[in-house]
Design goal:
The complex is a heterodimer. By secondary structure, chain A is of the alpha/beta class. Helix content of chain A is 34%, strand content 19%. Chain B is 20% helix and 35% strand.
Amino acid sequence: MAPRWRWPSLVPWLAALTVALAGSTGSARAATYPASVYTNVTAFDTCDGTPDTISHSLKVLAQNGFVALGYASAAYETSGFTKAQFLARTPADQAVYVHSHGDQYYAPYPKQVQGFRDDGGDCTQAITYATEVKARRTSGAHLVLMSTCHLAEVARTAGQPTMSEAYGIERLKSTVNGSYRGPEFYLSYVGLAYTADMLRFEQKFWAYIGQGRGLGDAFTLARANAGMSAATVPDWFGEYVYTGRPDGSPGCLNCQ
Amino acid sequence: MTSLCARPFRRVPAWRIAAAAGVLTALSIGATVSQASMPAGWRAGEPAEIPLVLEAPARATLAAAALDLARRLGLPGTPAPAVRALDRTLGRAFDTINLSSPDGRLATVITNEAATGRLHSAVRLAWSADLDVQRIGSPEAGPAARRFLILAGLAVPATTASTAWDDGMDAWRVRWARRIDGLEAPGDGLVVWVHRGGQLKAISDVETALAPVPAAPISKGAAAAAIGAYLQRTGIDRMAGLAIEEPTLGWAEANDFIDSTLPDAPAPTLRLAWLVRLSYVPPGWTERHFLELRVDAGTGQLIGGTETA
C-alpha cells in the first residue's frame, strides 16, 4: 500500500491554503460556501406515535458544526423540509446534513435506489433519490452527512449511484488506497441505525471536529468513545485528513 | 500461521500492571470530581465538556502511565501531560492523554475514567503502511484482541466475542457484550479493533455504573401490561403490522425517549429493566419501523427507548 500522505498530495492543500490566507474575511467566505441541514422531525414524532427530541438535537449539532467550519448554513425541518426545497438547494450546497429515514427504495420494483424521506409536516414524506441528486450536481460536495439507515451501503441494484456517489464522493477511503482524495468526506450508516446511538456518535464526532481534529480522526475517536450499541455501524468515504473546511485548506492537522 | 503480527507480543510482568493500577487508583483518590457538583444533564447546543483542575504532578504521572500502556500495546507517540474534563454527555469525568509523533501529529489518544483510573479507550490515529499489510483474518482477530486485553491489564471476558469487519475503522471489530449476572447491557461492552496487519487500532471499554437491583422486580406480565398501556395511549396499537417481542430483562439507561422534557444526555447509570422490541408500519409508510422500549424493573415505569432512523 502507498503511504497516505505523499509530497505530491501537498500541492492542492498548499494552493488552497494560500488562497485561504490571501482571501477575504470569514463571513464573506462563508457566504461563498452554502450548506444545508435537514431534519425529519415529524417522522419520529407524529407519524410513529412517540415523542422525539433527537431530530432537533442532531440539527443543532450539525448546524453549529457547519457554521464553525465556515459554511453559510441554513436549516430546515417539519414543513420546511420538503423534497422541492431540498432539490432546489442541491446544485449549490457544499455541505449537506440529512437526518431522516433512509433506505434503498424500489424505484420501481425490482430496481432499488438509495434515498431518504422528506418531512413536509405530514406522514406522506416523499422520497428523494440519489439519482435525482446526481442529476442536479455538476461538481462534488465537500462534506455530506446522511444521518439515516442504509446510506453507507453499496448499491443493491448494479449501475445505480449510491448517495455518496451522487455527491461526487466515491466509496473509497484515503487510508486504504493511499491516494489523496481531495477535500471531500461522506458519512452515513450501514444497515439499521438507532437514533439514540446516532446522537451519541454524532455528538462526539462534532465535538472532536470542534477541537480541531480532522474528519477521519474525529470519526475514529467518536467510534471508540461514543459507547454505541453493536447494532449501529457508521462508515465514511473520502479523505481521512480533510478538516471539512469549505475552502479545502488542511487547517490544523497538528492541533493538540 | 505462526505469528499474528510482525512484532511478537511481549509478556507483561504482573508487577508492572499492578504498579500502574496502583498509580491510577492513588490518583483517583485525590480526584476533584464529585457527582454532587456536576451540572444537570447535557442538552444539544450546550458545552459537552467542562475542563477540571488536575495538578501538574498528577498530569505528569498519568502521562507516564499512558506511555507505559502505549508501549505495551505497540501504540506510537510521546505523551503530553494529561487533561481532565467532565463529559456531560456521559455524566462522568475523564483524563485524556495525547501522544504525538516526532513531527507533532497526534498519534495515539488514551482516555481513563477520572474517578477510578480505569481505561476507557486507547486509540491509534497514526498511520503506517505496515498496518495495511494483510496478516490476519476473522479467525485470528479474536485471539489477537484477547492478547491486547491482557497486555492492557484488562480482564478477558469469559463470554464469546463477536467478530466482524468494521469498514469505518478499517479494522476487525471484536466485541464482548457486557453481561451482569447473565443479563445483557446492550449499550455497554468491551470492543477491540485490530488492523489487518495484526496491530491494535483501538480499545473501547464502556462500563456504565449500575443502579441498585430492585428488591422486588416486576414480572414480565406486568412489563407487558405497561407497554400495552403506552401503545394504547400513543395510538401505536393501531399501527399496521404491529409485532411485539417478548420482554427480556437487561440493563439500560433512562433517556428522554418517553419524557421529552428530560435532557438529551441519557442517565449516567444503568437500571434493571424489561426491554421490549417492537415494529410496525406507520401510516403512509412502506417500511417497518423498529422501536425498543424500556420498563424499569423496580417501578414499572417506562424510562426510555430508542428507534431506527
